[in-house]
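Folds vary. Our protein:
___
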Amino acid sequence: MSDKVDHLNIIESAITRMAGNSLQIKCWCLTIVSAAIVLSRSVIIVACVLPVMLFCYLDVNYLSLEKAYRNLYDEVRQKDESEIDFSMRFTPVPKIISFKSWSVWLFYLSMAVLLIAVSLINYLW
């Protein structure tokens, strides 16, 4: 294999890990929200809003890293074979760009709204 293909495979494995970590964070968040709703105590449900925000922050971090590695992939893809140095240095992507992704704000906002709605229903019931 050529050096360029090897370097692209290394970067692709980092992208895959970041995407997998992002999925795992969403799964853990959904598990915690489901457990809080099943327990159906207003205090527990409201207390779970903080972990949802923390999971959101972690997910934004992983998504930012994933985008940075995608940009690195594009840079390496455009280089000549002689320029390949197997560097994994990338230009960071601002987290606000990752937060604007619908896969982040829609998921975590719906989890927070669901927790607050169930808490209010339990409180009023």
User: Anything to note?
Assistant: The chain has a mean pLDDT of 89. The chain has one domain: 3-124. Residues 3-39 form the longest helix (37 residues).
